[in-house]
Design a protein that fits this description.
Elements lengths: L7 E2 L4 E4 L3 H43 L5 H40 L2 E3 L4 E6 L14 E5 L14 H7 L16
Antiparallel strand pairs: 1-4, 2-3, 4-5
């Protein structure tokens, strides 16, 4: 929705929504890449399990002198290769999770929430207008109580209290020692 001057917003209310079509597409792509990486990992797990079974079988046959040392070493090499492929697939899954997390963050960044309870005093952009990072969207003033502590000479305390108008001013005396 477009905010107008004097609109009141609460902390977390959406004050602007940037075009998120690209980010939703990136998110879908990241989800698909993760699914593909997970499927590849399952495939590599199966290949590695088979290579390990073959190696175990050849080790048993080798002990019975029913397999050659070359066959056993080839099976060891095949098992090492499938383990490396499985580890690579696992790293691809981890990377895909990171890409997906980044895509989710970028999509969330298309929403601009109110940082505090406040009142819109100025709109800097109109709906549909292009903006860049760092551009102002709206100016808000806080509707919460603001507390400020000022040190002023005691002789000025009463004039400050009188000129405060609608502000609630509490003037407290503090001990000042002159040397």
């Amino acid at each position: 929705r477009a905010f107008f001057l004097r609109d009141v917003v609460r902390r977390g209310d959406l004050i602007a929504q940037l075009d998120a079509r690209r980010h939703r597409t990136y998110l879908s792509q990241a989800e698909a890449e993760l699914a593909t990486a997970e499927a590849l990992l399952l495939e590599q797990d199966a290949h590695h399990a088979k290579a390990q079974r073959d190696l175990d079988k050849l080790n048993a046959l080798f002990k019975q002198h029913a397999a050659t040392d070359l066959e056993r070493r080839d099976a060891q090499t095949a098992t090492a290769v499938t383990e490396a492929q499985r580890n690579s697939a696992q790293r691809r899954v981890e990377q895909a999770h990171q890409v997906l997390a980044l895509a989710r963050i970028r999509l969330a960044d298309t929403r601009i929430p109110a940082p505090f309870d406040g009142r819109v005093v100025r709109r800097h952009v109109e709906p549909g207008e292009w903006i860049r990072p760092g551009d102002r969207v709206v100016t808000l003033i806080s509707t919460n109580t603001i507390e400020a502590r000022l040190q002023i000479p005691e002789r000025l305390a009463e004039p400050v209290r009188q000129s405060a108008g609608a502000l609630a001013v509490a003037v407290t005396a503090s001990a000042v020692t002159a040397t």
